[in-house]
Amino acid sequence: MGRGLRQLAGRIYCPHFLGGGIGLAALAEILAAVGSPGLLEVDVNPNPLRSSFALARIDRASGAWHLSSAPGHGVVSIPNELDSFVSHRIETVA
Q1: Would you state the torsion angle of the CA atoms of residues 71, 74, 80, 83, taken in this order, to the nearest 10 degrees?
Q2: Residue 93 falls within a domain, yes or no?
Q3: Which of 12, 40, 81, 94 has the fewest CB neighbours in a 10 Å radius?
Q4: For residue 38, is it within any domain?
């Protein structure tokens, strides 16, 4: 991507996100793809749909978010903490 979109536009990209963990992971990936340092603003209010995905990726000492190299923004399964939020589940038989 060369210099990155942010550098080409001469602006700083600092998105904010208030929803669930999968969307937060996607926005972190977009921020990283833009190039150059930026800030990702995250709501601090309790939100199990966000924190059950995000807490493992945040380095609390530095505040850095660690991107995953796994497909799908690194989400390979729904965390057990979210079982009470599941309203429909389709199971397949192998």
Answers
A1: -60
A2: no
A3: 94
A4: yes
Residue 75 lies in a domain: yes
CA geometry: angle 44, 60, 37, nearest 5 deg: 85
Please tell me the distance from the alpha carbon of residue 53 to that of residue 58, in angstroms, as a whole number: 10
Residues spanned by the domain of 66: 5-85
Q: What is the pLDDT of residue 49?
A: 81
SS3 state at 30: helix
Residue 37: inside a domain: yes
Q: What does the longest C-alpha to C-alpha distance in the chain come to?
A: 53
Q: Domain count of the chain?
A: 1
Q: Which residue has the higher pLDDT, 31 or 65?
A: 31
- How much is the mean pLDDT over the chain? 75
* pLDDT > 50? residue 79: yes
